[in-house]
Structure formats: structure tokens, C-alpha cells
Specification:
The complex is a heterodimer. Chain A is of the alpha+beta class. Chain A contains 6 helices and 12 strands. Classes of the chains: A alpha+beta, B alpha+beta. Bound molecules: iron/sulfur cluster (2 copies).
């Protein structure tokens, strides 16, 4: 009997201690739990047309409605709840005067280019070692330069224009955080179409009319749209993408459809009725 | 003759079969609490159609939105024959049911064709890289079934991979059967040009592949749709602004339309659709992406829930190369009109006289 009482007392004591401990833990929990949960719930970032170009961070625009859905397989943007997320007005574009103001928006690309703020200050500050403006090689061949080659590996053998253009045909000589037009005037990195249209005029016309390139938002001809500019789909430094020569970087495809019932693999698709 | 002009109202205590009053005008609020659902079901089993309809009218007032909607759906008209009031009623009923079923605020749009709009689609086949993003965007937008068992995964768009054949000097004299020097057909031995036996289940590391071309196919929204001609219950039809739609409630799942479609664009829900709550898209249209039931046929409808409000279809928005174009054919400034004006355009299986509003082009 006595033994039992002692056990009970011990159990009660233990219990109360445990309770006290757990209560203390509970009090500490919210603060602790909040930090890892936030770290774990890092919102997914999906790339839009190709890896290395525009990205979009997932967030909610309305309760239960995300601004974008990312593919679980490839990480590409698969669905837009808000097509105008993170965009700014495109600015003046010849031939688009009829569009209502603010109905053509683009995603600023310069924010994505991490090194760009330094280009025009740290290295190319407009004051060359020998002269002002800095001297340019007469043969228009890029000089071997480890910093630049780290960013653009094919610098000496640029796969654009089949060797007939060089850096300064597109980049401004003294304002390196700008592109350049035919008059030598600077163009923003957010409006690469003004640069690309210098040579690809037919493509620029088709892009302006909406039959080349991608745009999202409203389909009516005067609707509000987000325009994808040239560099969001094409990599200007390697536009031919090797032997394939189609202008697009290769991507990982999304998964294939379900196999027909009873089929284990898709070998049947490769069987031609006529052998060859 | 007063009884004929004003049908007498149905007293709650009376057996429903005795009443002549149309059930819609019966006051369910007065009668519902006095009779249990079981009694009504029993009565419904034994009695005439009007009784059933009376029961349905009462069922719509029940707390269980799902049961109420099912009952009411059994007695609703074909969507095209509904009055605006009936459409609004059907819409409210479905919104209640889906919201309860999927645990979020679901809207069922009933917006009709907009004046001056005829939708058209164009696809640049030289640009398509075969990445299948359009396929999966369509699934995310349109609430298709996405289970893993056979028949539970439904995709409306298919991307066909076609090999490229070659003409080769060394094969000039080759023939079939090999060694006999007898030529059957062409003399290049390898089928040259585009090899038309396509693959749907290709899985390379990266696309586009060097020796392949891709051809996405979905519903062509024909102007003379064979599926509409063959449907025995007239539940599939062409809307005034272009898309061919299905009133899912009236589809009997006979699959005549699937046999008639030359583009393999229709899919049937052989099993109950698998649609996880958190993945369900709550913005729906009655004729579009609202959740489907087992045993009905479904198809691409150019995202009616988006396009009726001016938005691009989901597949257009995700295509990474901008190969997909959508616009109003009646607007000369629209993207599709410009393509028809300037580019080399063809329609698939034009010889069948289906007159698709889906154009393939290249530049
Ligand atoms: S399956 Fe449905 S839509 Fe197709 S023909 Fe039969 S009833 Fe009509
Ligand atoms: S998303 Fe565009 S590029 Fe990719 S398969 Fe579809 S049409 Fe082709």
C-alpha cells in the first residue's frame, strides 16, 4: 500500500515536472518553429522561357490563387495567375502609337543582370588607360580577357552573325551598361528589340505585330499585354545553340502522356509498317 | 375552368402525386421540413415524373449541396435551351456544390459569346521545340483528371515528334527487299522528308532534338465539325464565337464523336476523374473547365473561362518560344489575322472539309 503511494507520488511529481518542462518548451516553440518553417517554405522561383533569363517568384495574388505555377519536373513556369507580375511600361516603340498607354508592359531585364551596375563604373568607366574614349582594337577582334570570357565563354568565336560582328556592334563604347543603336546613342537593356531590330528588321516587324515572339495577358489587339523581349527567349551570345541552329537553347521537356493501357513502354511507336 | 389557368398549389401534407402544380412553383420552404428526404426518395421511386421533379425541387433546398445539385442536374434542360434564369439557377447550384466539394470559392461562369468575336488560333511549327509545356499548362488550367492508373490521366493537347528522313547519295540504288535491286517506292530506302509515323512518348534529355520536328495537335474547333454531326443527343455544338463545346450533363458517353473526330481531340472519362482539391482551378466556365463526371467526353474549348474575358488561353501563355498565337479573326489587327495575311498557312487534313479555325504556319 505504502509502496503504491510512493509510486503514485513519484509519478505525480514526475508528471508535474514533465508538464512544466513541456509548457516551457511550448512557449519557446512558436519562435523556434517560425524560423525553420519560413526557411522551408521558401517560395519557388520558376524560369519563364529559358533558363538564365526571366524568372518569377511564386506568391499569392488572391487567397488560394498563385501568380504562377511551376512545373514540378523542370521548374518552368506552367501557368499564369497574374501575367503582369513585376512588369513596367515598355516605353515608346515606333509603330505602336495606337496602343492605349500602359497596355504594353515588359519585365525589366537589367534587374536580373547582377554585374551590370558595375560594368559602367568598376571597369569600363569611360576613361581608358591610353585615351578617352578608350582605344579599340583596329581589327575588331575581342582581346583575350579572363573576366569577360568567364561571362561569355565564346567571346573570341562569337556565335552571332557568323563571325561578322563583334562586341561593340551591340554594346555602347563608353556606357557599358547600355546597348547601342545605329547613331551611337545608348539603348536600355530593357529594350533590346531596338538593338536587335537594327539587323533583324523583318523579325522586329513581326514581333511588333505580335506574330513573332511571346506575349501574355489579353488577346484583343488593344488589350493589355506583357511583351517578351528578344533576350528572354534568345541568348544573344550563343543564338545558334550549336549544331541545331534554331535560335533556342535546349530545354528539358515535360513528362510524356500516359501509355496506352497494357503497354509497358513506347516501343510500339518506333515500329514502322514499312521496314527501313 | 379556373383550375386549368391557375394550377392549385400543392399542400405540404398531401401526396405529391396528387398535385398538379408545377414543382418549380411549389413552395419547398413550406413543405421541406415536414417530410424527410427518405420519404421523398421512396415516393420518387414509385411515382410519376412530376413527382420526381417535385422531389428534385425539394432536394435542391437540402443542406448537402452535392446531392442537391445531382438531383437538379438530372432534370435540367440542355444548356442551349435554358433560359437566362435557368442558367443562373444552374450556375448558383454548381458553385455551391463545387465550393463545398473542393473546399474553396469556386465560380462557374456562364458568359456567352461576345459580339464581334470569332476566335482563331495559329501555331508556328518551325518554332515548336516539343517541350510539352502547353500540354501541362492545359491540365493545370482545365481541371483534367490526373490520376496514375490507366485511363485516369487526361491531356487534351498532344505533341507529335516526327523524325526527319534524308536523301543520301549512297542509297540511290537501294531497294526493298534488300539485295534484289528491286525498287519499291522511292529509291532512297530511308523514308525521306518528314516521317509521318510520329511519337507521342518521346523522352529525350533535352529538346529540340537535332533530327526531329514537332507538331502539337489539339481540337481544331472546326467550322464543320464531324463530332457535332454525329452526336445523337445534340450535346456538342459550335458556339457563335467559334469553339466547339459540350454540355457535359447531356453527354451520354456513346463516344460517337471520338470516332468521328479526325484529329483525335476528344477524351472520355472512363473512370471517375481524379482532381486533387489543392490543384483544382476554381475559376471555371459551365461549358469549359468545370469538373467533369465519369462517363462523359471532354475536349479543348480554347479556355472559354479565359478567352470570353479577353485573356489568352493557358497554352499560349506558357509556350517558351511563342509558337502559339491566338486572336479574333474578325479583327484585322489581331495576331491571327496578321498571320493569315502574311505567312504560309495550312490546315491539318484540309481535304476532309472540316474547315478548322486552327492554322499551322511557318516563316
Ligand atoms: S460521347 Fe457525348 S458528346 Fe460525344 S457523341 Fe456521344 S453524347 Fe455526343
Ligand atoms: S509549349 Fe510551345 S514549344 Fe513547347 S510543345 Fe507546346 S507549342 Fe511546342
Amino acid at each position: 500500500m505504502k509502496k503504491l503511494a510512493i509510486y503514485t507520488l513519484a509519478a505525480a511529481l514526475l508528471g508535474s515536472t514533465l508538464y512544466a518542462v513541456s509548457a516551457a518548451e511550448k512557449a519557446a516553440e512558436p519562435a523556434q518553429a517560425a524560423a525553420p518553417a519560413e526557411a522551408a517554405k521558401e517560395p519557388p522561383v520558376c524560369f519563364e522561357s529559358r533558363k538564365g533569363a526571366s524568372e518569377v517568384t511564386q506568391k499569392e495574388v488572391k487567397p488560394g490563387l498563385p501568380n504562377v505555377k511551376c512545373s514540378p519536373t523542370t521548374g518552368a513556369a506552367l501557368w499564369y495567375g497574374d501575367p503582369y507580375d513585376g512588369t513596367v511600361p515598355m516605353g515608346k516603340m515606333p509603330g505602336l502609337e495606337k496602343l492605349p498607354a500602359g497596355h504594353a508592359v515588359v519585365k525589366p531585364r537589367s534587374e536580373k543582370l547582377a554585374l551590370m551596375p558595375m560594368c559602367g563604373t568598376a571597369c569600363h568607366n569611360g576613361v581608358g588607360p591610353n585615351a578617352n574614349p578608350p582605344t579599340l582594337p583596329k581589327d575588331k577582334r575581342a582581346k583575350p580577357n579572363p573576366t569577360m570570357e568567364a561571362m561569355v565563354p565564346d567571346l573570341a568565336n562569337l556565335q552571332h552573325g557568323r563571325g561578322r560582328i563583334w562586341c561593340m556592334d551591340c554594346h555602347h563604347t563608353t556606357k557599358r551598361n547600355m546597348l547601342v543603336d545605329h547613331f551611337g546613342d545608348p539603348i536600355s537593356f530593357d529594350q533590346p528589340q531596338l538593338l536587335c531590330g537594327k539587323c533583324h528588321g523583318d523579325k522586329l516587324r513581326d514581333w511588333r505585330d505580335g506574330i513573332h515572339g511571346k506575349r501574355i495577358g489579353e488577346f484583343t489587339s488593344t488589350g493589355k499585354k506583357r511583351w517578351f523581349t528578344c533576350t528572354e527567349c534568345h541568348n544573344p551570345h550563343n543564338v545558334q545553340d550549336g549544331a541545331r541552329n534554331r535560335g533556342f537553347a535546349q530545354l528539358q521537356p515535360e513528362p510524356p502522356p500516359q501509355l496506352p493501357k497494357g503497354m509497358k513502354d513506347a516501343k510500339h511507336e518506333k515500329l514502322h509498317p514499312i521496314p527501313h | 375552368m379556373t383550375t386549368k389557368e391557375t394550377p392549385k398549389a400543392c399542400p405540404a401534407e398531401e401526396q405529391p402525386s396528387v398535385c398538379t402544380a408545377p414543382p418549380a412553383s411549389a413552395d419547398p420552404a413550406a413543405s421541406a421540413p415536414k417530410t424527410s428526404r427518405r420519404d421523398f426518395l421512396k415516393a420518387g421511386g414509385m411515382l410519376s415524373m412530376s413527382t420526381l421533379m417535385g422531389t428534385a425541387a425539394l432536394m435542391t433546398q437540402s443542406d448537402d449541396a452535392h446531392a442537391a445539385a445531382e438531383w437538379a442536374e438530372h432534370f435540367q434542360k440542355n444548356y442551349r435551351l435554358m433560359t437566362d434564369a435557368e442558367k443562373a439557377e444552374a450556375r448558383a447550384r454548381l458553385e455551391r456544390r463545387y465550393s463545398q466539394e473542393y473546399g474553396k470559392q469556386v465560380t462557374v461562369d456562364t458568359t456567352g459569346p461576345q459580339p464581334g468575336v470569332l476566335m482563331g488560333y495559329a501555331l508556328n511549327i518551325r518554332k515548336c521545340i516539343g517541350c510539352r509545356r502547353c500540354v501541362h499548362a492545359c491540365v493545370a488550367e482545365n481541371n483534367q483528371s490526373r490520376g496514375t492508373k490507366p485511363g485516369e490521366k487526361i491531356e487534351w493537347i498532344q505533341v507529335l515528334r516526327m523524325e526527319r528522313g534524308k536523301f543520301e547519295q549512297g542509297k540511290m540504288d537501294h531497294g526493298y527487299p534488300e539485295g534484289l535491286g528491286i525498287q519499291v517506292g522511292g529509291n532512297a530506302y530511308t523514308p525521306a522528308g518528314q516521317v509521318l509515323e510520329g511519337q507521342y512518348h518521346y523522352t529525350p534529355e533535352a529538346v529540340p532534338e537535332q533530327d526531329a520536328t514537332y507538331m502539337p495537335i489539339a481540337c481544331m474547333q472546326c467550322e464543320k465539325p464531324p463530332c457535332v454531326k454525329v452526336c445523337p443527343v445534340r450535346t456538342t455544338y459550335r458556339e457563335a464565337d467559334g469553339p466547339v463545346v459540350i454540355d457535359y450533363n447531356w453527354c451520354i458517353g456513346c463516344r460517337m464523336c471520338m470516332g468521328a473526330c479526325p484529329y483525335w481531340a476528344r477524351r472520355i472519362n472512363l473512370t471517375s476523374p481524379v482532381l486533387p482539391k489543392e490543384e483544382m482551378n476554381p475559376v471555371t466556365h459551365y461549358l469549359g473547365n468545370r469538373p467533369r463526371m465519369r462517363g462523359v467526353v471532354e475536349k479543348c474549348h480554347w479556355c472559354l473561362q479565359r478567352t470570353r474575358h479577353g485573356r489568352y488561353p493557358a497554352c499560349v501563355e506558357v509556350c517558351p518560344v511563342g509558337a502559339r498565337k491566338f486572336g479574333n479573326l474578325l479583327d484585322p489587327e489581331s495576331e491571327v489575322s496578321k498571320i493569315l495575311e502574311r505567312k504560309n498557312v495550312f490546315r491539318l487534313k484540309a481535304e476532309l472539309n472540316t474547315f478548322p479555325k486552327f492554322f499551322y504556319f511557318y516563316d
